[in-house]
Design goal:
The protein starts with 5 loop residues before the first helix and ends with a helix. Strand 3, helix 3 and strand 4 form a beta-alpha-beta unit. The radius of gyration is 19 Å and the shape is globular. With 234 residues, the chain is α/β, with parallel strands linked by helices. The protein folds into two domains: 134 residues, Ribulose 1,5 Bisphosphate Carboxylase/Oxygenase; 83 residues, 3-Layer(aba) Sandwich (Rossmann fold). The chain contains nine helices and nine strands.
Length: 234
Amino acid sequence: MSKRGKKYNKAFAKIDQAASYNLSQACAILKETKTAKFDESADAAIHLGVDPRHADQMVRGAVILPHGTGKKIKVLVFAKGPKAEEAKAAGADIIGAEELAAKVENGFLDFDRVIAQPELMILVGKLGKVLGPRGLMPNPKMGTVTVDIRKAVEEAKGGKVEFKVDKAGTIHVPFGRASFDKDKLNENLKTLLEAIMRAKPHSLKGQYLKKIVVSLTMGPAVKVDMQEIISGAV
């Protein structure tokens, strides 16, 4: 295992490894752990007490962060006719149908979000092997298969993030950038955690939240106090 650099160790020393911090404290400390020259992403890892192998315990959803993620999102839209014009007016970066589907099937993946009008899902469905593993497949439950193309594009551009529990029972999702002030990070993280709490499976009998940590791209993890979230204090 390679040794950590001096900057990382200095940031690590600012965190009490035996402590769990409330949201406000965690975001304030997170700001102090910046080590990279670039604007690092602020990421949350939420470990849940679910078994994703069971369909009724699959946790997924989407939420609009009040201050966005700080990342410019490139949106691809499968649409035709008036819906294509609607997508263009809303600021979509890439718009098309059959030719675009062929391009994606041949390896074009220079985009962050995919939205589709329902009539074109027969076309888009054939791209499952390409889009699915990358978490880009449009889904009605996530609002990315919709007749309201304008709203979907505007939400994607405005800070909407999707979350989905992985095979290990953990959700990994960005909630801002190192350049955000602590209050904006706090509000984004609070909004994200509230959405994940609302997504708790009704069939789950045991503990839902197991562990929450936040970190910058190149920085150490900061443990978040779960009781604050569980009690509804967020």
